[in-house]
Amino acid sequence: MNVALASDIEVLARFGRALADPIRCRLLLALRDAPAYPSELADTLGISRTRLSNHLTCLRDCGLVVAVPEGRRSRYELADERLGHALDDLRTAVVAVETDRTCPDAEAKDCC
């Protein structure tokens, strides 16, 4: 595995792209609670395994999750336990939202 340290800006941009999709947010929150297998994650999120696979690939490419081989299966977990703390901090942060405004990139479907 080729692991390179990303700059602060790259890290934040990857995190932002990962969090831009509600399914990826739900996936990260599920993995914050505990590592899981794709079949469990698909059932928990109520999505197809194909769709889940695409989102897991994005999160892996962003460097936020890792696949841990276990025999013929792979278990997914957050790449660093500190990501769970960061998710908690973001989740509980107070955000000043004007109800008549939407995020300009809310419809963007790009990935990492």
UniProtKB/TrEMBL annotation:
It holds the Pfam family HTH_5. InterPro entries: ArsR-like_HTH, HTH_ArsR_DNA-bd_dom, HTH_Metal-responsive_Reg, WH-like_DNA-bd_sf, WH_DNA-bd_sf. Gene3D superfamilies: Winged helix-like DNA-binding domain superfamily/Winged helix DNA-binding domain. Residues 5-101 form the HTH arsR-type domain. It comes from the Bacteria. This is Winged helix-turn-helix transcriptional regulator. It comes from Streptomyces ureilyticus. The lineage of its organism: Bacteria, Bacillati, Actinomycetota, Actinomycetes, Kitasatosporales.
